Amino acid sequence: MAEIPPQAIAEARVGLGIPDERFPHHVAIIMDGNGRWASGRGLPRTMGHSEGGKVVRKIITESARLGLEALTLYSFSIENWSRPQDEVNALMHLYADYLVSERPMLMRNNVRLRHLGQREGLPESVLLELDRSLEISSSNTGMWLNLALNYGGRAELTKAVRAIASEAAKGKIAPEKIDEQVISDSLDTAGLPDPDLLIRTAGEMRVSNFLLWQVSYAEFYVTETLWPDFDEKSFVEAIHAFANRHRRFGGLEKTDS
After folding, report:
1. Domain ranges of the chain
2. Set 80, 97, 229, 231: catalytic member
3. In CATH, what class is 6-152+194-243?
């Protein structure tokens, strides 16, 4: 584990010209466009996913350098199982390999890995490497990297409701005591701040069943850039756009009438 010095993070932020109070704590990304990137070049879709994996490494490293508290990546949704079987198989192979190859990067940047989503259905090879990466990075103290793998927002909420209902049935919590915090504490992201910024690549204007509870007040940033073409500069542009937004959370600013 190699901690990133606070002074280095401060200098990196100063270089962007963004004050700390306008910097996002938690960024979530819907990484879209791998298949279109490959198809547009006459390549197999799996090549797009492979190139997209290289971008993931860049964005994780840049996020840690800038001192983000959390980065959440939508990697594979529950709905993605409906894709052609050969593409799904290739993706699972890529995930297993990636979890192994990127462990040095996680440790070098003091990143803690967390899995969002269902374990059921994932191949044993992926679960084995996922658990190993979770274990190895558990002693790190820096940024949380939340990997949404076999994830669906509705499924996450359903699981949370069942858990709360079970506690209520046992008499451990009274129904009138169930509030927003209780629900948040029952989600896969328990203990983390909600995303301030949600980035989606490839121009699609939808949430796609991603962090349905958590993104209630997130700022959306949609770019036409396909994920394999997204880079550190693109990421910084999204952060700058976020910093220039006026977040009202349903209220009014003094200048509003």
Report:
1. 6-152+194-243
2. 80
3. alpha beta
